[in-house]
Amino acid sequence: MLSSIVKEHQVKQSAKREELEKKRKDAVVAASTLTSALVDHLNVGVAQAYLNQKRLDYESKQLHANVTNFAKQTAQWLQLVESFSQVLKEIGDVENWAKSIENDMRTISSALEYAYKVGQEES
């Protein structure tokens, strides 16, 4: 009788060990599955952040190139406006010179007409 109780106890312990081992394996599989799911979920966020960073880098390079081109165009426009301004000043100088010569010619013409009239009256 005692040996049957010991045997029965050993069988029960063996069954409990097997059940415990099965539960441990199930827990390991569940923990592994949970870990994989969490890592996958985190990797999606990291991958999205990486893609966003790549896009931001590309767009910042494009923006830098556009700003550089804009600065060059602005410098060209400023040079063109400066040249235009210089030409306008020169045209203004020529116009003043022409007016000065025109006034001198009128003075000379008036003096010649006066001299001619005085010469006609004396004759």
UniProtKB/TrEMBL annotation:
<dbReference type="GO" id="GO:0016197">
    <property type="term" value="P:endosomal transport"/>
</dbReference>
<comment type="similarity">
    <text>Belongs to the BLOC1S1 family.</text>
</comment>
<protein>
    <recommendedName>
        <fullName>Biogenesis of lysosome-related organelles complex 1 subunit 1</fullName>
    </recommendedName>
</protein>
<feature type="region of interest" description="Disordered">
    <location>
        <begin position="1"/>
        <end position="23"/>
    </location>
</feature>
<dbReference type="GO" id="GO:0031083">
    <property type="term" value="C:BLOC-1 complex"/>
</dbReference>
<dbReference type="InterPro" id="IPR009395">
    <property type="entry name" value="BLOC1S1"/>
</dbReference>
<dbReference type="Pfam" id="PF06320">
    <property type="entry name" value="GCN5L1"/>
</dbReference>
